[in-house]
Amino acid sequence: MEEEKETLKSRKVITIGIVSELTGLSVRRIRYYEERKLIFPERTKQGSRKFSFSDVEALMDIANKIEDGVQTHEIRREMARRERGLTDREVRDQMLKGQLRAHFGETRS
């Protein structure tokens, strides 16, 4: 049952116009997020974009982060970290180590 829910949630069946209505984002803004490689809609043979409910959730999350001042490249970096399976704590630890190395002029060993 859970697997079926995830399949329905991830099916790319929603047009960009409907996504715009659901999210309150303009079609232009949605296309911009796609250009910035933050979302990855499928394309039909005719070239129309198709989104999933997971994509809609991701767009809302992206829009909230942008509103909070987060840059698109930072969002993309966070997405890559999540894909690699790093926890927030691990990411924070890596950032602190990098800052310490930069401050004290240490090189990686």
From TrEMBL:
Residues 13-81 form the HTH merR-type domain. Keywords: DNA-binding, Repressor, Transcription, Transcription regulation. SMART domains: HTH_MERR. The keyword Repressor applies. Gene3D superfamilies: 1.10.1660.10. This is MerR family transcriptional regulator. The lineage of its organism: Bacteria, Bacillati, Bacillota, Bacilli, Bacillales.
